Amino acid sequence: MKYLICTIIVFTFCVFESKAQFSSIGGIVNDSEQKPLSNSSVSLKGTVRGVQTNGKGEYILEGLKAGNYTLVVSSIGMKSIEKALFLENKEHRSENFTLENETYFLNDVQIVASRGVRGNDYMAEVEGYSINAAKKNEVIKLDNINANLAMNNSRQIFGRTPGISVWENDGSGIQLGVASRGLSPNRSWEFNMRMNGYDITPDPMGYPEAYYTPPMEVVDRIEIVRGASSLQYGPQFGGLMNFVLRKPDISTKITFESQNTMGSNGLFSTFNYLGGTRGRLSYTMYYQKRFGNGWRENSYYNTDHAHAELSYAFTNKLKVAAELTYMTYSSQQAGGLTDAQYAVDPRQSLRSRNWFSTPWLVPSVNAEYIFNSKSKISWKTFGVIAERSSVGFVKAITEVDDFKNRQVDTDFYNNFGSEIRFLSDFKIGKFKNTLASGLRYYNGNINRNQLGKGSTGSNMDFELAEGDFSRKLDFNNINKAAFFENVFRLNKKFLVTAGLRLENIKSTMDGRLNILNGQDNNLSMITRGRTFVLFGGGAEYHVSNNSEFYSNISQAYRPVLISDLIPPATTDEIDQNLKDAKGYNFDFGYRGRLGNYLSFDVDYFRLNYNDRIGTITQMNTLGQRYQYRTNLGRSLSQGFEGYLEFDPISAFIKKSKFGYLSLFASVAFIDATYKGFKTTIVVNNQIVEGNLSGKKVENAPSKINRFGVNYNKKGFSMTWQLSDIGSAYSDASNTETPNVAATTGLIPAYTVQDISASFKFLKNYNVKAGINNITNEKYFTRRAGGYPGPGILPADGRTFNVSAGVKF
Hints:
mainly beta, Maltoporin, Chain A, 2 domains, 25-stranded mixed beta sheet
């Protein structure tokens, strides 16, 4: 303790000493009418130093050494200003600025400035350490939408993002299950899931299921890059989904925020945030507590989230930051229902002893160094120290819980990763080009313990009642990668991109598969290594300052996962030559804005998925049948995605004292079909081969349409949204009639409506309210073959929430 106290004293002394010894620049930023501009950016060109103006338009940059600087002042929709100046030792310079209005280009950061249009933004052509030019991408600004953020309501959050399918079987909002373009939403595993640019899944190359999702109340924005992200982030078919948390507030020394929500079924949520900047030091921390009983019986949840970040600019060129995120929760799983049970009462539950929990700890350290205005480098080191534990009666829903010993399964994750990224601008002729490159190392370790004999009780208890876990496996995955991608600007309107990614993956697995007659049945150690290269390229043509055509094609792959290598039974076999699934993503689209009243993005996509992994029945030399897991074939997803938002008042009336209205439509038409996928069935004790060619891919609705209206006036905003989702099959054989256990069968189409509103008053206060599933529709989005089912997992009926918040 004494060392901690000494450290705090020394650190505090250094902060105040630096303030006394160094110089500073401060002032006010106004618009052309001399009104203060809040949240304007004031930065020193070619350095890591920058702040934002506060509500009075004031800014201050402290801890500066004497020397020459270029001050850059910018704000959305305004012309930027650059001013060169020389700062004397211990000088406290005052510099005020007035910014003029400007029409901005699509190659700048896209933030909607219209009064009525509040939809998705687009990422800049080059932003941070990433190249986004020519790629299909979206930025969801959480401040721009009305949604039930306390419960992470996915269909509202992704309401303006075309083609995003959502599994709505987790009403607690703890886990996110989303996908696009006919891929599986199972814990979002087809996306490369990141937070602040680093991985948060157990192992992106071995077990990519996203058990952790940050609370949306602390998320500033969600960045989505469709499949073409495979060069810079990872090769997943779905692309990148990055949750960017609120960074330390750089406009004030201290900011405090509290948002408290109550709602249906005993919902209570409290979110508390603290952040600010003091000279070279920035900090932020939050804590969220949420609990409730859930819409269904036996669906209690209790969650705790905490996050802290410290950032310090050691020099004007070097900034170092550390982050720590922690989550823990108790989640009671209501289990599945048969079709008959669902028809009688979708809120009922026949499983009262099933529980789930995933304590999650994610540490991260990162550093950024700016060489000059053209070149910079970033380094991130991160880890995942976590568990996945479940206990319950997990047999088919047609079997009655006998209240004997429950099954316990527990995974332990101890993973480490590091990435270095470099970005540099250079000229060829008159035009600026940009090179992004990087190196990655990831070491994932999974200790899997399954089929344990748990207690006979009903509470959350993951301890073994007797013996050991029947299955104990150790899985290690080492991934090394390098990427290069370049933007070549051929003229003011046309650019092309080209790049490659080199991947090396080494996987090993050994351990005990089960215990037979008191004897360990051990797996022979499985070792798999592979090295390959992925290529991609794109083009972008600016039709005008505010619209562009874009196109991109990029290779992708899904590595063999730990679940692919584990045979369900001792007689089952895994193909020793099992290959990673490979394919590509293609996009061609047109996006832009017209004035401040119309925003649009329409595109055609094509996703080719080769070497899909599946299981077929085979016969051995003794005439015995067994299941054989191998690469069975190919699927193709193609279709159209479109987003349109229109503000008729801004278009025709320009200014209105009655407020502003926007109408939005997010539509997707998807044809996800198997083009060749071998199958087998047993008829009269004989194996009959078949093919799924022409069958629809499971869990892939043919239409995903969402429409809405948003009204806002000064501090008041209200949004109504309708989701119209097509039917889907739960299995690759496209079974129409449900089986007895409800694990296969049609997932019917459904339509559901939501409404949310917010009101900000007296600058620092707000109230929010919403009703989800206004008409209390009965529907479901998933038939689970295993945990947390099996069976139909109903979506929530009508619920409401009300919230009050304060920010100082």
